[in-house]
Request: fold
Amino acid sequence: MQQPTLINLKVLLPFEIFVEKSGVSRIVAETNNGSFGILPRRLDCVAALVPGILIYQNEAEGEVFVAIDEGVLVKSGLEVLVSVRNAVTGTDLSKLRETVEQDFLKLDEREQNVRKVMTKMENDFIRRLAGFHHE
Reply:
């Protein structure tokens, strides 16, 4: 009897491999156009992911939920790579949602503060550069 074809999944964060699983039978991810599923024989693709829940299933763990921030998914052959800025895993969807809301919203606030500071620095730099140009 022939072994079923299964997917190798990696969820990558900027500084680490968050999830690395083999033997994955299906994956469900969310894009701007809605959710879509990946089975082992699906055509290769690239998709921009929105913040939401990525679901994968394998025989050992069953259905696993991973809350992800925006990122990209690449399927090539039996390899699926998901690259995101943040991820949290859990089995209870309500607790996972609370965690995502708390952690990701805090991060959004920090990112906004950093962007404000960067914008101020860039404007100051441009103003000084313009001042040198007129001298």
About this structure: The radius of gyration is 20 Å. Strands lie at 7-13, 16-31, 34-38, 45-49, 52-58, 62-68, 71-76, 79-84, 87-90. The longest helix spans residues 93-134.
